[in-house]
Design brief:
The complex is a heterodimer.
Chain A lengths: L2 H18 L4 E7 H9 L10 E8 L7 H11 L4 E5 L13 H6 L4 E3 L3 H10 L4 E8 L4 H14 L4 E7 L3 H9 L7 E5 H7 L5 H7 L3 E4 L3 H17 L4 E3 L11 H10 E3 L2 E4 L3 E4 L3 E3 L8 H4 L15 H6 L30 H9 L13
Parallel strand pairs in A: 1-2, 1-7, 3-4, 3-5, 5-6, 7-8, 8-9
Antiparallel strand pairs in A: 10-13, 11-12
Helix pairs in contact in A: 1-10, 2-14, 6-11
Chain B lengths: L4 E7 L7 E6 L2 E6 L13 E5 L2 E6 L1 H14 L1 H12 L4
Antiparallel strand pairs in B: 1-2, 1-4, 2-3, 4-5
The structure holds iron/sulfur cluster (SF4).
């Protein structure tokens, strides 16, 4: 942070303190990227104690149910299959270990940066069945959709996708509609909104009478978003506002929406870790692209595995429990040996808190560099 | 994976290809720009890159600031760059 940015941060913090007054307000940051920034920069320490951040379900690694990990492992252990995934997914625990463990036992699991890398691998190694383990919200779903279109255009016969793409809207509806969730506003996920548009979050205001501000990922973006939420609260009129104008428009990326509509259809329901089954919450491949659908090409077991008993990820993902309120946090569950998914990705609330927030409260000064 | 990285466009795609070249922390990377092709791209534009695809054009001074902040952020940004280095994305 530069000196000017620090000054802006200070001004915003003062405004937030003034607007919040004595009231206890709870704002949920939906996106794991925001959770990460909040802890990394010690933002809570800049704000009065009555302004609380509640962590939401927007980390795609965190919400993958164990059964889906087991499905991926089952595919990876097939003789002919090469399973490609993002690096964050290697340690995600399934019911029977992780992809990393499967790889150590001889499964062909490879890390890719982009779905296009998996497609290129399929073209290079025509004897292998290359399966891309696709995860992510609307931010990454268009990339998978374009890759499938490219595979179709190039007639790549040995490429398929194990699709776990999810939508942010339905889990938010489920969460906001559930009893006992006391929130005063939402910090909207900036990079999902790049694709969906800020206006897509209008339902939060309309259906749940809550303010929502789509936010950027820098510390001052988050501070400004909190100030905007509080200003809405004072005005008493709820709407979806956009703080992240430098990347997000009202209508979103129309080209990305179009390729998603072309390739994906909504599944009737999908299981989420800790949140149970949620209707219409995930994307599957359309019939026309069934030859690229790993679930149709292979016999995927599709078993449901209950979350481990010790794990509080569900409550962490719904914002009703803080990471350190889980009995195994930092002891049995660490980033090296995670029990729950929230400890795996650096965007998970437990991992973020473990890395930055655990020792003696949060920093007074926003951290710069390492 | 979810960390979007702004990068400066240095070479526009040629012909039918959707592959452009961006500058990322001094290194050149190929990225797919099909999703922002309608935005009238010119060299020097800042693009927000996710898993090998540009998903938005960004305002440039703000993007430059984001890059500086990401560099200060260290860990996850470095991981993302390393992941990009491993994959060719062509
Ligand atoms: S500490 Fe581990 S088990 Fe507990 S909620 Fe976090 S990730 Fe889940």
């Amino acid at each position: 942070m530069s000196a000017t940015e620090r000054e802006v941060a200070g001004r915003l913090a003062t405004e937030i303190a003034r607007l919040a007054g004595e009231e206890h307000v709870r704002f949920m940051e939906v996106c794991g990227g925001h959770t990460h920034t909040i802890y990394r920069y010690g933002i809570p320490s800049l704000l009065p104690e009555n302004v609380e951040f509640v962590h939401g379900p927007g980390c795609p690694v965190c919400v993958i149910p164990m059964g889906r990990v087991d499905d991926a492992i089952a595919l990876a252990t097939e003789e002919t299959v090469t399973l490609c995934c993002f690096g964050d997914l290697l340690r995600v625990p399934g019911g029977r270990g992780s992809l990393m463990e499967a790889r150590a036992e001889g499964a062909d699991v490879r890390i890719v940066y982009s779905p296009l890398d998996a497609l290129a691998l399929a073209e290079r190694e025509p004897d292998r069945q290359v399966v891309f383990l696709a995860v992510g919200f609307e931010t990454t779903a268009p990339a998978t959709a374009l890759t499938v279109l490219r595979a179709a255009a190039r007639g790549v016969a040995n490429f398929s996708v194990l699709c776990n793409h999810v939508t942010i809207e339905e889990p938010l509806r489920a969460l906001l509609g559930a009893p006992g969730v006391a929130l005063d506003g939402l910090i909207g996920p900036g990079h999902v909104a790049v694709v969906t548009g800020a206006a897509a979050f209008g339902f939060v205001a309309k259906e749940f009478s809550l303010p929502i501000v789509v936010s950027g990922f820098e510390p001052n973006d988050l501070l400004e978003s909190v100030a905007m939420l509080l200003r809405q609260r004072h005005s008493g009129r709820w709407r979806a506002e956009n703080q992240y104008r430098r990347a997000v428009s009202d209508e979103g990326n129309l080209a990305a929406q179009a390729v998603m509509a072309q390739v994906f259809t909504r599944r009737a329901r999908f299981a989420w870790r800790g949140l149970g089954e949620i209707e219409r919450s995930a994307y599957g491949l359309r019939e026309e692209f069934s030859r690229f659908d790993a679930e149709r090409r292979f016999a995927v077991p599709g078993i449901t595995v209950p979350d481990p008993r010790a794990c509080r990820c569900g409550e962490v993902l719904r914002g009703v429990r803080k990471p350190w309120q889980c009995g195994v946090f930092g002891t049995a569950c660490t980033p090296e040996r995670p029990i729950g998914t929230c400890m795996v990705s650096s965007e998970g609330a437990c991992a973020a808190y473990y890395h930055y927030g655990r020792l003696g409260g949060l920093r007074r000064e926003p951290a710069v560099g390492r | 994976m979810c960390l979007g990285i702004p990068a400066r466009l240095v070479e526009l795609p040629v012909g039918e290809s959707a592959i452009a070249v961006v500058d990322l922390g001094g290194a050149r990377r190929a990225v797919n720009v099909a999703l922002v092709a309608d935005e009238g791209l010119v060299e020097g534009d800042f693009l927000l890159i996710h898993v090998g695809f540009a998903i938005a054009k960004m305002e440039s001074d703000e993007a430059a600031r984001t890059i500086a902040d990401l560099e200060a952020l260290g860990g996850p940004y470095r991981d993302e760059l390393e992941a990009m280095n491993r994959g060719s994305s062509r």
